[in-house]
Automatic annotation (TrEMBL):
Residues 13-248, 251-504 form the ABC transporter domain. The lineage of its organism: Bacteria, Pseudomonadati, Pseudomonadota, Alphaproteobacteria, Hyphomicrobiales. Pfam families: ABC_tran. One of its GO terms (molecular function) is ATP binding. CDD domains: ABC_Carb_Monos_I, ABC_Carb_Monos_II. Keywords: ATP-binding, Nucleotide-binding, Repeat, Sugar transport, Transport. This is Simple sugar transport system ATP-binding protein. SUPFAM superfamilies: P-loop containing nucleoside triphosphate hydrolases. SMART domains: AAA (SM00382). Belongs to the ABC transporter superfamily. It comes from Kaistia geumhonensis.
């Protein structure tokens, strides 16, 4: 393993020579990391490189097969000593570890509520929660139901909880994945403040510009191995990507600027004056062979509209038509049978059955189409899965591997494969590149381009500039309504300003 030069004080955390196997898969091979107190350290690598496995080992949730973890030079506590681990390290995951039906205060002191004569003292609980939130400058009401917190506030509550156990080393696992531009800016301000107050961060992100913005050091994993640790200032983006991919890559992401959509192509998707929980009076059309972006901040209503079109969410008033046929509200089977393919927002809730193999997940929508007695010939099932694995570069042992054993980014690629399985006429792609690495993004957006050329009507629902560059036009939503339309060729500044609801600089 390549070691960075060490300074005086021992690192706040280090993993030395760790290896981990899952059956035939080598997830980590003699890998390691050294994080120094007071820095924000990025951990990057392609999907399946071993990042989550290393996080599991650094947080004591997984045992490594070989190697060791040390905190400030001392051996890590035994895995059974959860309290000992909690005092040293915490990870804020993309998926909340907060219990939604409890209050913020209850979540902060779960299993360690202040007692008075054997009973929980609610006033003390609330008071201590308030003091803790104030100490770390988290302006969230302590008696709020935790399930009602926005992602941004939930992350801060989880950070405050970790700090209250004494941990000063916090792992942030893709913290920006569900945040919009303004929320990301605020999160970065908080990270800098906490860093100044003595907190050390390990930051996992597939957005490399964020690594340059917020981190001082970066460690790259590739194919289960440690490749390099260096100050970010010494590793320009091209070299960082080279370290991640092992090759000198030129990323080739489709750009709709200069493309002229066919104005006579049939309209495949018509949305006419629909309203729903967080949107009202929304109308749009997408022609066959056209890619339309639907953008806006996380609370703009874009996901509500997209879910209505995919049958996942309800709408009232107005109509949605696929070709000439009307789509009833909240009806996934009809949406599928009319030819709507969908990458949903939450791959865990609507996207995948984790306990099933890749092959079953990619053919699930076809099964549904064939009805309860539907039967897919084994060869077709296997071919479909192999096609997804090949075209999207899924890192896997093969079509029979359970989806639960895939890394996050590779699960996302399977969701895309599933969306394409019923040969849809209309594709609704919500945050299609969330959690995928730079090169996989190229592959996924390449699929969008191929589908467009094949005459599909595609709605890309995202606020990622790179996703939106594939679009012939981008509709921007704010407060539940479409407020702007940008034809391909927009400047990044103008589009981002429009999404954020501010004037372009
Ligand atoms: N529970 C498991 N069972 C089988 N294989 C697993 C399991 N967890 C991880 N793996 C495998 O270990 C390898 C490393 O996965 P890991 O989740 O650590 O990658 P990652 O770098 O976090 O990827 P991503 O960016 O996609 O989240 C992958 O090949 C993955 O398929």
């Amino acid at each position: 393993m390549q070691e960075p030069p060490s300074g005086g004080a021992p690192p706040i955390v280090e993993a030395i020579g760790v290896s981990k196997r899952y059956g035939p898969t080598i997830a980590l091979s003699d890998a390691g990391i050294r994080v120094h107190a007071g820095e924000s350290h990025a951990l990057v690598g392609r999907n399946g490189a071993g990042k989550s496995t290393l996080v599991g080992i650094l947080t004591g949730l997984r045992a490594s097969d070989t190697g060791e973890v040390r905190f400030s030079g001392e051996p890590a506590p035994p895995l059974s000593d959860r309290e000992g681990w909690r005092q040293r390290v915490a990870c804020v995951y993309q998926h909340s570890t907060i219990i939604p039906d409890l209050t913020v205060a209850e979540n902060l002191f779960i299993n360690r509520q202040p007692l008075q004569r054997g009973f929980i003292s609610w006033p003390t609980l609330r008071r201590e929660a308030r003091a803790l939130l104030d100490r770390w400058n988290v302006s969230v009401p302590e008696d709020m139901r935790a399930g009602d917190l926005r992602v941004e506030a939930r992350q801060l509550v989880e950070i405050a909880r970790a700090l209250s156990y004494g941990a000063r080393f916090i792992i942030l696992d893709e913290p920006t994945a569900q945040l919009d531009g303004e929320e990301i800016k605020r999160l970065f301000v908080r990270i800098r403040e906490l860093q100044a107050a003595g907190v050390t961060f390990l930051f996992i992100s597939h957005h490399l510009q964020e690594v340059y913005e917020i981190c001082q050091t970066v460690t790259v994993l590739r194919d289960a191995r440690h490749i390099v640790t260096a100050p970010v200032a010494d590793l320009p983006k091209s070299r960082l990507i080279e370290a991640m991919t092992g090759e000198n890559v030129h990323l080739d992401i489709a750009d709709a600027a200069g493309r002229v959509p066919d104005p006579t192509a049939p309209v495949a998707l018509t949305v006419e004056r629909i309203s729903g929980e967080d949107f009202s009076d929304v109308s749009l059309t997408v022609r066959s062979g056209e890619v339309v972006g639907l953008s806006g901040s996380t609370s703009s209503g874009r996901v509500g509209v997209a879910e209505a079109i995919a049958g996942l969410g309800r709408y009232r008033g107005g109509t949605i038509r696929i070709g000439s046929r009307t789509l009833p509200s909240g009806d996934v089977p009809t949406a599928l049978s009319l030819g709507v393919g969908c990458v949903p927002k939450s791959r865990h809730k609507e996207g995948l059955v984790l306990s099933m193999p890749i092959a079953d997940n990619t053919t699930m929508t076809i099964n549904r189409l064939l009805g309860p007695l539907g039967f897919i010939p084994p060869a077709k099932r296997r071919n479909r899965a192999e096609e997804t694995i090949r075209s999207l570069g899924v890192v896997t042992q093969g079509p029979e591997q359970l989806v639960s054993g895939l890394s996050g980014g590779n699960q996302q690629k399977v969701v895309m494969g599933r969306a394409l399985a019923n040969d849809p006429a209309v594709l609704v792609l919500m945050d299609p590149t969330a959690g995928v690495d730079v090169k996989s993004k190229e592959a996924l957006l390449g699929v969008v381009e191929r589908m467009r050329a094949a005459g599909k009507a595609i709605l890309v629902v995202s606020s990622e500039v790179e996703d939106l560059r594939t679009c012939d036009r981008v509709l921007v939503m704010r407060h539940g309504s479409i407020v702007a339309e940008h034809k391909a060729g927009w400047s990044d500044n103008a589009l981002v300003a429009s999404i954020e609801g501010i004037e372009a600089l």
